[in-house]
Amino acid sequence: MFEKSINKILKEDEKVIITVRRYFIVFILPVLISALLIIAPFFFLYPLINWSSWGLLIFFGILGIGLILAFRVFIVYSFNIFIITNQRIIDIDQHGFFSRTVSETIYEKIQDVSFKIKGIMRTIFHYGDIIIQTAGSQANIELHGVKDPAKVQQAIIDIQKNYRQNGNLPEEVINDFIKKVQAVNLHDEINDKE
Questions:
Q1: 44 phi and psi, to 5 degrees?
Q2: CA distances (Å), 128 to each of 63, 117, 121, 152, in order?
Q3: Strand blocks (E) in 107-151
Q4: Structure confidence by residue, pLDDT tens digits, 97-137
Q5: What is the pTM of this model?
Q6: Tens-digit pLDDT profile for residues 165-186
Q7: Distances (CA, A) of 124 to 26, 99, 120, 130, 193
């Protein structure tokens, strides 16, 4: 489902190298709030039933709000994506059900790639923000709440360097880079299990 929406915005010879989503830790508070709103009415089911129709209205109202909030969190997490391709970087920011911002930049326009980790939670869980400064009147591209932003920064810098040297990323460079990313992800998964 999500691959179809990604493929719609890709150009003809464009290949996805990496997709980056916000770290799930960023969504813990909204998930907890929606879970509380979904579960809480069941704890008060007996007193609410005693209030007859008003009680049922309150029960289903709170339950509905919790379900809508949970669905919103799912939509924002699923469609908020940072796509690094062989030709450009695409940032899709999903702000809610009906609000989306898509920005992109080509590698020639990238002037600086930096990351920022600020705060106790971000330091403990190793997540932060990626900032891509672009040339000209184009706005900077930012991705908030990314796991291991230093690795994402280095990946973008390496791809940009290869792109500038070759004018385009050859197929073998793309495949080699995908293998490196998969090896790093596998190494992270093994370390997380230990």
A1: -105, 20
A2: 33, 4, 10, 11
A3: 110-116, 127-134, 141-147
A4: 888 888 888 888 888 999 999 999 999 999 999 999 988 77
A5: 0.75
A6: 776 655 666 666 666 655 555 4
A7: 13, 31, 6, 17, 17
